[in-house]
Amino acid sequence: MDITFTDNAYNTKHAGSPLYDRDHLLTTFQQARERASQLERQILVSITLPMTAHDPQVVFRMFQHLDLGNRFFWARAADKRALVGIGEATVIETAGPERVTTAATAWRELRQHAIIEKISSDLPPYTSGPVLLGGFMFDTLTPHTDLWEGFPDGLLILPHLLFHADEDKAALTINALIDADDDVEQRTDRVVETVRCLAQALQSGIDQPVEEAAQRSGEMRTQDILPAERWKEQVAQAVKKIRAGAFEKVVLARGVQVEQEEKFDIDGTLRRLSQSYPSAYVFAIQRGTRYFMGATPERLVCSEDGEIQTMALAGSAPRGTSEEEDRRFGEELLKSEKNQGEHNFVVTTIRDALSSLCSRVWVADAPRLLKLKNIQHLETPIMGNLKPGHSILEAIEDLHPTPAVGGYPRLPALDAIREDEQLDRGWYAGPIGWIGTGGNGEFAVALRSGLVDGKRATLFAGCGIVADSDPESEYQESCLKLQVMLRGLGGEL
Ligand SMILES: C=C(O[C@@H]1C=C(C(=O)O)C=C[C@H]1O)C(=O)O
Questions:
Q1: Residue 473, Cβ density class (10 Å: 0-12 exposed, 13-18 middle, ≥19 buried)
Q2: Quick check: CB of 174 below 6 Å from ligand 1?
Q3: What percentage of the chain exceeds 90 in pLDDT?
Q4: Among 123, 105, 435, 446, CA closest to 303
Q5: For residue range 191-245, what is the model confidence (pLDDT) as tens digits?
Q6: Ligand 1 centroid to residue 303 C-alpha, Å
């Protein structure tokens, strides 16, 4: 079973021992229990072990056999980074407009007095140690419906087990919260058994090629939540408001309900999304029978050692059916005043938001094209150096919602969404990602996404509306964006 882990100093030292050395784990848990009793609080224990690289999709599938609870998937095929978690050592759940700040405080508190072990120096540098996975609702002030039950305003999960990998290293982190009166012998045995089961599952499944997703046996039925004509009227109304000077841009979203005879195949959907959108963040967060999942091209913010990277992504055109047509569409997008306008609101807003958090902000001179499978966007890379003491959660607090998903100026645009959109966005277009120690982490904007529950799914897509938007073109653009999840679920093959 040791083949699951690399032949690192730790395993060599403990050659022949179980995957995780029981005695060592027990000593750590005992130490945590003592600390818990002295300080009269729970103590976080986080242990990271090196592991041989595995396909994150396979790990996600194998995790299901562990019976540890909800799973979480996050991967970007292009840079070979992945985080796959299962279970909840603890969760930080927050509510209200202060949901991000409250989560940041709870995270700081949780880390205090923690015992963090890294059983090698050969580990993915940014994701080793305790890492929280989760996300935030787009807007806490819109009335919530049952649709998003289980997805609170803010949710950060410390998983029991986290598989994480970068381009050349992979590791497993085991997290636990220890109480003063915990039976640490029993806790130790449970962890050792869980890791043993995982190793076994991976070993037995490791040689099996990831099978092609089962073909759908029946029809996938789709229905607009708001009839197409009504949505286009909304767009026309928004254009009128903009021309009357109420605001300059608003992003209006629409939802589509999808149903089929059989349950949607979550693992297969993730695989199709990863294959079709290698540069996107492919994600899934499970709450019971529900999965919020998608393949978003939009990074909200990535922070590594104080350097943050973000982007303005707004302005869209279809891909051409020939190389020539594709180039033409791209050139027209780059020259389009309408698209440049809606893009520039995003650039300006992000630059302003970062200027208070960062000692230096760098913005590319001009947007470039980001070409995805069926759509192309204007993209401006933006970077900055976080001032000491600031973390990624503060950046999220300031950046979200950017005018790429909200509007410009922010407040009147959000009011218009609340009044006119008639859609419970829930976590759609909210920040989703992970945060580690030292302020590192990465969050994306949860676009090209849907909430999947058994045989049903609700998919979302939105478009930036400006003074010269045409309702029909915006509707067509939203259809292109919806295709990501429709195809991901196995439809429109
Ligand atoms: C709102 C969405 O996408 C956003 C809106 C875009 C636009 O209006 O051109 C482009 C990219 C995203 O920032 C979505 O995919 O649902």
A1: middle
A2: no
A3: 85
A4: 435
A5: 999 998 888 888 886 555 555 545 555 689 999 999 999 999 999 999 999 999 9
A6: 23
Contact predicate 87/235, CB 8 Å? no
Q: What is the pLDDT of residue 247?
A: 98
Q: Is 467 exposed, middle or buried (0-12, 13-18, 19+ CB in 10 A)?
A: middle
Quick one: CA dihedral 104, 107, 109, 113, positive or negative? negative
Q: What's the whole-number average pLDDT of the chain?
A: 92
Centre of ligand 1 from the C-alpha of residue 473, in Å: 13
| Residues 104, 59: Cα–Cα separation, whole Å | 29
- Closest by Cα among 72, 82, 59, 273 to 167: 82
Residue 398 in contact with residue 300, Cβ under 8 Å? no
The finding on whether 463 has its CB within 6 A of some atom of ligand 1 is: yes
Does residue 48 surpass a pLDDT of 50? Answer: yes
Q: Is 256 in the pocket of ligand 1 (CB under 6 A)?
A: no
Helix (H) or strand (E) holding 34: helix 22-39
The confidence score (pLDDT) of residue 100 equals: 92
Q: What is the 3-state secondary structure (H, E, C) of 325-380?
A: HHHHHHHHHHHCHHHHHHHHHHHHHHHHHHHHHEEEEEECCCCEEEECCCEEEEEE
- Of 248, 249, 397, 421, which is the active-site residue? 249
pLDDT of residue 169: 94
Q: Is ligand 1 within 6 A of the CB of residue 367?
A: no
Architecture of the domain delimited by 221-488: 4-Layer Sandwich (3.60)
Tokens of 452: 């999947």
Whether the ω angle into residue 297 lies within 30 degrees of 0, i.e. cis, is no
Question: In the chain, helix, strand, coil percent, each to 5?
Answer: 35, 30, 35
127: left (phi over 0), alpha (psi -120 to 50) or beta: alpha
Q: Which residues are bridge partners to 385 per DSSP? A: 307, 360
Question: Domain locations in the chain?
Answer: 2-205, 221-488
Asked if ipTM goes beyond 0.95, one says yes
**Helix or strand or coil: residue 9?**
helix
CA distance 307 to 361: 10
Of the candidates 298, 296, 301, the one whose C-alpha atom is nearest the C-alpha of residue 276 is 296
Overall size of the chain counted in residues: 493
| 342-356 pLDDT tens trace | 999 999 999 999 999
CA pseudo-torsion sign 63, 68, 69, 73: negative
Whole-angstrom distance, CA of residue 55 vs CA of residue 80: 10
| pLDDT, tens only, 366-403 | 999 999 999 999 999 999 999 988 889 999 999 999 99
